[in-house]
Amino acid sequence: MVLKPCSSALFTGQQVYLDRLKYYFGIQNENGIASRRCFLIYGLGGMGKTQIALKFAEEVSNQYAYIFWVDATNEDTISASLKGISSIPEAKNVALDQTTEAVLYWITSLSKEWLLIFDNVDWEPNVIERYLPSNNRGHILITSRNPNMRSLTGSKNCIELDGMNIEDGIALLLKRSNLEEGITEPIQEASERIVAALFCLPLAVDQAGAYITSGLCSIHDYLELYSEHRKELMDHPSFKGASKYEQTVYGTWELSYKKIESMAANELNPRNAQAAQTAILIHQIMAFFHHENIMEDIFSRAAEQYIALDLEGMSNKGLPLAVLHLNKKQLHITNGKWDKLKFRSGLQVLLSFSLIKKGSLNTVYHIHPMIHAWCKDRMAKHERKNSSFLAMSLLGYSVIQSNDISDYIFHHTLVTHIKINQSYLTDICKMNIYYDDIHISFAHVLYQNGHWSEAEKLQVEVMEKRQQLLSSAHPDTLISMAHLASTYRSQGRWTEAEKLQVEVMEKRQQLLGPAHPDTLLSLGHLASTYRSQGKWTDAEKLEVEVMEKRQQLLGPAHPHTLTSMGNMALTYRNQGKLTEAEKLEVEVMEKTLQLLGPAHPATLTSMGNLASTFRTQGKWTEAEKLEVEVMEKSQQLLGPAHPDTLTSMANLASTYWNQGQWTKLEVLLITVATKRREILGFDHPDTQKSLEALLDFKKKKMNINITKNGSENKITLSDYIPLFLEVFRGSSSALDLNK
Fold first, then answer.
1. Which value, to the nearest 10 degrees, does the dihedral of the CA atoms of residues 319, 321, 327, 331 take?
2. C-alpha separations of 97 from 70, 112, 406, 438 in Å
3. In its keyword annotation, does this UniProt entry include Hydrolase (predicted)?
């Protein structure tokens, strides 16, 4: 006896899940009766949970004497489904009462094997637990959006649906589009692009196929239509797909949101109402981050910084500040503290509907890309504006400018969120809105992670606004000028950096005096620019002054003192004073290691500087050991494409050259040259150096005759063409290195 709906005629693939269910529910004992087995299929609405359950029931119908289907959308639908069971002939033969309790008792009394399917159980486990037959017999399959249902089945006895595989998705799209026969290569390619754009979500793929079948577009121009009218396509009432609940893609998620909104409005249960309100706020903010790796720390750090601020003092500065538009409720602050319990109660509501999911770490969350898009699409314009502003403010105030290694790591993870948030804001506001506090924080993160062009754009705006609103000699204006000068120096724009640094230095000397820490900071920055320009004498003069004054003011072990000592050592090395350089660099490395730890960027810089001196001295083994360590730790901390990581790889390549380790050398030279060209640009001095090194290596290895053009001996694009052809087209091994 099978009492259930039929699966869709369009059901496609999903064999791995069907096989898993068949294995789990397989009858295993000698009597042909297995003990109670309970399994959960959970995931986002539209993933095909119901259809997999229906298909499974059809394929194993010969194994069960009874298959019962219960619509568990709410308690009323459960009662109606169980009442329907009481009307089947076997139940009538025993004069079964139509009450829920009687039907469940009758099911437990059955001597033959039965399967009971609870579909669409989207509440908490304790509610559905009341409807489970009481004995230890029979099999139960549950479909739900709520991962908490795992408490009923066990964490091993469940499947989380993330979407179809690409092949099944293409097959479903072609079947739904009536294009299964005569599939050409263009159709196949178009199908693959559509399925990928819909992230293999079964209901979305089904709905796309229905739209194509209707004749409103072809399979070739669907994506163009989708990019322009995503909301209309995903929520069009005429194309509801195969869902038994007759919902569009957006409609099925809207059901979840309506439930949350209903909870939020329920004054009879204030605790649940507050959790639901918090969930809505969090979800709307998350929509304006990147959809992956959304950290709880973004919210907690921003709240903690807000609590510590002197808002009145900040408001008197006369600068446009985002923080002045925030309030404690938006930041989940209760009784002067960030309310972790309140925040996590909101997260739990979102998790219970699979609107977000946990990452590998408990405090990191992800949103399905299509849910991420839907959340923005469902908002009114003013809601998008407010939520994107809140997201921007949280990102900005989660930034802490310190030497702590945890802040470096955290800022590295923020870059993607900052870039996507700025893109959303520009799209929503159609103009750049200036907030001094946010621009400073975002520029700091972008600069720290090597995104110098984006940092420069923000820093120029900060400097100009502060000059306009505060005056050109205001300390905050000088700070903004110093930041911009540092970016110019990193970009190899030394003349522009020097001009700004000289101005900052002179004004600080006038305003603060020659021994003020900020004055010494500007002297040190100018000295670094002189060193980059090859002005060794000018650099040495400033560096000696800075080092001596910092030792007096800050002490010999202060990070700023160690920085000035390291800079002094660099000048000594370039002047050929290798013994003096090594002595200083050993001292800097040891003290930095004690002060900041072995993986801090400043420690890695000191190790790299000492390794370069070893290399200049011909101590290849000592240099290689340090350089390998610096490169590996930089890759872990900063990422493989950070300019500092590429510098560490270039330094190691120099050592390999001197050691004659040609195979290792080639790998590094190709990687550094190509990545620097992508990230820094063709004309950056570091890119030029790495291209020149690669050209020299190719000439040495393959005897390529590439001549230099121009009196300045600078590599031009025409010099690069033979190298491009040889490295990127002529050598498959070289191509493999850069995938």
1. -150
2. 18, 21, 65, 67
3. yes
Burial of 511 (0-12, 13-18, 19+ CB in 10 A): middle
Tokens at 301, concatenated: 């750090």
Residue 114 pairs in a beta bridge with 66
> ∠642-646-647 over CA atoms, to 5°?
115
Asked if 582 and 617 count as a contact pair (C-beta separation under 8 A), the reply is yes
Dist CA 412 CA 720 (whole Å): 32
- Are 575 and 540 in contact by the 8 Å Cβ rule? The answer is yes
Identify the three-state secondary structure at position 137: strand
In whole angstroms, what is the distance from residue 136 CA to residue 118 CA?
A: 17
Query: What pLDDT shows up at residue 736?
Result: 32
Domains of the chain, by residue range, sit at 2-161, 166-247, 272-538, 596-737
Q: Looking at the chain, how many residues does it have? A: 739
Confidence (pLDDT) at 727: 46
Q: Do domains 272-538 and 596-737 have the same CATH topology?
A: yes
Q: Express each pLDDT in 665-698 by its tens digit.
A: 989 999 999 899 888 888 888 888 888 888 888 7
pTM score of the predicted model:
0.83
Give CA–CA dist 101/86, Å, rounded.
Answer: 11
Q: Say if strands 294-295 and 364-366 run parallel, antiparallel, or are unpaired.
A: antiparallel
Quote the tokens at residue 213: 């079948």
Place of tokens 């000439």: 699
605-654: per-residue pLDDT in tens?
Answer: 999 999 999 999 999 999 999 999 999 999 988 889 899 999 999 999 99
CATH class name, domain 2-161: alpha beta
Vertex 560: Cα angle to 557 and 561 (nearest 5): 50
Q: How far is CA 89 from CA 86, 95, 102, 201, in A?
A: 8, 10, 15, 40
pLDDT at position 713: 53
Positive or negative, the CA dihedral 466, 468, 469, 471 is: positive
Contact 137, 35 (CB under 8 A): yes
For domain 272-538, which CATH number applies: 1.25.40.10, 3.40.250.10, 3.20.20.370, 3.40.50.720?
Answer: 1.25.40.10
* Spatial distance between the Cα atoms of 143 and 149, rounded to a whole number of angstroms: 9
334, containing H or E segment: strand 333-334
Structure tokens at 422: 């700025």
Residue at token pair 């305003």: 511
Strand 333-334 with 114-119, pairing: unpaired
Residue 27, both tokens? 């009858």
Fold of 596-737: 1.25.40
State residue 366 phi and psi, 5-degree precision.
-130, 155
User: CA-to-CA distance for 449 and 443, rounded, in angstroms?
Assistant: 10
Q: Which amino acid is at 245?
A: Y
**CB neighbour burial string for 100-111, b if at least 16 within 10 angstroms, e if fewer:** bebbbebbeeee
